[in-house]
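Q: Sequence in, structure out?
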Amino acid sequence: MFNLEMSSLKRKVNQLFIFFFFLIILFYLPSCSDNKVDREDHIETYPVFKTTTTNISSYVSYPTQIQGTEEVEIRSKISGYISKVFIDEGDYVKKNQLLFKIEANTLEQDAFAAEAAIKTAEAKVNQAEIEIEKLEPLVERDIISNVELRTAKANLASLKAQLNQAKSTYKSIVVNKDYTYIKSPTSGFIGRLNLKVGALVSPNDANPLSTISDTKNIHAYFSMNEDNLYDLIKGLNGNTLDDKINFLPKVYFEASNGEIYNKQGALNATSGKIESKTGAIQLRALFDNSEYSLLSGSSGKIRIPVYYSNVITIPMSSTFDLQGQKCVYVLSKDNILIAKSVEVLDQVERQYIIGEGLNSGEIILAEGVNKVRPNMVIKPNYVDMSNIILSFNTVFK
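A: Exactly. Output:
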């Protein structure tokens, strides 16, 4: 009887044990599932994009100063006083337009004297000719010697020379009288007027009366170093430097306020040599300025386009610096971030042009490079790279 009771008690204990065991399992399994979900929830989501190749253009810029194609100094060719000024600073003048009047009273007196000298010389020549006409028959009849006739002819030649000298002097005075009216040698804009009415001028003055700039076409002068020049013309057609420059793309002028001039220019000349002290060469670009919106003497920048074909571009926000190198995070198949160094060829707005280090089709972390670490697992959120660049530009405006 006792044995039966003990056996029954053991069965009940075993049944209770099995009951509690399954009860514990029922509570444990949801807990394990919740822990797994919690771990997955702690994997953060980051934007990524797939790299592709594209064609893109950039530019290099160089400081420049522009000048009119003609910069003419206005100087007086005679000495005298400025009696009248017909223009003002900044005026546009046409070729042969009257600019200044120089008062030179002595020229009038010199002209009268020169005219009188001509008449006197002509009278002496006539008298000498008459004298020769008288002597020639006498010589033919041997009444007088031939020496007297030769002397008379020599005297005539001397008097004719004096007459020619008088005429030359008169012409010179007439020309100088014309120089009292200073006219514009070309069309353009008047610069600063260095002398006013009443000032004494002469051909030897250190400063000109003014300058005239023909700015219908303007030149933009700038310099670049030897390495940049050879990189720029590498692969271009032509045998000489000037030949290769003719194949360079059209250039742009950027004013000092950042505004881009609405007409393109063309590189058309170089200084022909590289300066040994600076290692630079001077170049010149020609721009149409028929609207006269550019002023001679203005400064700015020359922008030369550079074209890239089949290159990979990435947002600047996708990069970080590591030991002096630009790096990106590449996403593996297991969504693990792997740091990778890249070579940057150029920067266009808020994106880098990559030379080496990336292949088309790789997945790159778009943003948040300062919040992650190598070998970190993330949840990728695929985005369009253009949206990343657009948002980056908006932030930095």
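The radius of gyration is 47 Å.
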